[in-house]
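Long-time lurker, first post. I've been practising inverse folding by hand and with some scripts of my own, and I keep getting stuck on stretches where the structure tokens seem ambiguous. Below is the full token string for one chain I'm working on. Before anyone asks, I'm not after the true native sequence, just a reasonable design that respects the backbone. If someone could post their per-position residues I'd love to compare against what I wrote down in my notebook.
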């Protein structure tokens, strides 16, 4: 099956499409939060005092909760796929 056929089958099955969208949102948010917590995204240290203070206060929360959001998205996908089959 080629790539176009896979996308067509996903779009024709609204339940599968909903599962993919529902799981993608927390996965993308978790990746973003993790990257923000590790300062891969955002201003570099020392360029903005307010950003440094914000990161000092909330950076660890993003480092810890980001991967859990990714796992939650994967969990949602697995549970929904098992429930629909």
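-- Answer (accepted) --
I ran through it position by position. Result:
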């Amino acid at each position: 099956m080629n790539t176009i056929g896979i996308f067509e089958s996903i779009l024709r099955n609204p339940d599968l499409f909903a599962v993919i969208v529902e799981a993608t949102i927390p996965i993308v948010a978790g990746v973003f939060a993790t990257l923000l917590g590790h300062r891969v995204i955002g201003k570099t240290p020392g360029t903005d005092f307010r950003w440094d203070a914000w990161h000092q206060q909330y950076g660890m929360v993003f480092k810890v909760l980001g991967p859990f959001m990714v796992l939650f998205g994967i969990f949602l996908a697995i549970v929904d796929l098992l429930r629909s089959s």
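A couple of notes from the structure itself: The two ends are 21 Å apart (CA to CA). The chain has one domain: 3-84. Happy to go over any region you disagree with.
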